[in-house]
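User: Before I run my own analysis I want an independent prediction to cross-check against. Here's the chain; please return only the structure tokens and, at the end, one sentence I can use as a sanity check.
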Amino acid sequence: MKLRDRPWAAHPHLEVVAVDLADAGSTRSSLKNCGAAYYLVHSMISAGKDYAAHDLMLARAFAAAARDAGVRRILYLGGLGETGHGLSEHLASRRAVEAALQSAGVPVTVFRAAIIIGSGSASFEILRYLVERLPVMVTPRWVSTPCQPIAVRNVIHYLVAALQVPQTAGQTFDIGGPEVLTYREIMDIMGEELGVGRRLILPVPVLTPRLSSYWIHLVTPLHHSIARPLAEGLRNPVVCRGTRIRELIPQPLLTVREAIRAALQKADSGQAETTWTMAGPLPGDPGWAGGKVFTDSRSTTVRAPAEEVYRTVCRIGGRHGWYANWLWEIRGFLDRLAGGPGLRRGRRHPDSIALGEALDFWRVAGLEPPRLLRLRAEMKLPGQALLEFRIEPQGPDACRLVQTARFHPRGLLGLLYWFAVTPFHAIVFRGMLGALRREAERARAQRKLSSAS
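Assistant: Structure tokens:
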């Protein structure tokens, strides 16, 4: 469902099919008549601490389904790193998935990459936020670990071009950019490209991956459960041991500086197609089977057409903020302290919105242009919460905007939470509704002025 509102989803040669990879029959059926299959699955976000076992199970099921469906080759993007007992759980899991995909006898082309530099990737976001927000960094010793990053456009070229190069079938390739740098050097380049200059970095031996992951959680948008396996992997040198792929698939390889510059330009211009926050299952309506559901519903008349109001509502969050309401900022800060995502995840694009993507500590759970936007809360709460905006046309140049917050408490703590925050709703929700009305009317007046001139 997340893919169906993408601009390319309507291409006549493309079909979007939803498949549960744990269902062997469904996977086998979807792979019928496929000559090649790309396996780009990683369940670190959706499966939590059990991601390694879950990934292994899915890879085995997929390999068997591909064999039974007659798929002639599989292409997989894995992780770079030396084998052995010192390999982090995250990188060891990537190797286990390789073996599972190869177990059914279908030829597998494996590409192993270190950090992939591209707008929206988790590794890129960690680097960007750390450098952007911290003039002084106390870091673990892994900042001196050698790494060979690669630009996302170079990775995509390898993945696509491999289909046209028969010699890549059943082979494993290390892929990387033209430079081997330490993480410290990469952060220096990031600081220069961000315009903040080189940061003061103080490596210390006492910071463990666990402590590092909590620090990353506080400073960046990533939750510590995602940050920890990534931080553990940073202690492993990730350098290519061979360059044969460059002979089979030649292409201009971007330097780290060029890759960072391209990623920043794409992110800042709102052209990033996806972000790491879009991973995981698509949230639907909560499973509210009976029980008390608290509701706060408010409405206002807006002197603007429904399409204009819908556009305004869909711009909420990210850099636009929650319409200058300081209580949202406090709520975001408290959520970060409690282990939630807070307001730092932002949004993929400043104006457009897609089903399943994150808006700070909310996620888009319903989208019906130009009449409905439904958000599901992913902040730390003793219950489940929805925030819904419904637009009801009242003529060509007016409509009614209905804003409804619903909360299903979990136990006594949930009840206490609702009654504790209820006095603030008059400020938070009334203020947001009024700001949305004013913004929509201002945008309508601006459009009319532009068309008149």
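Sanity check: The chain has a mean pLDDT of 84.
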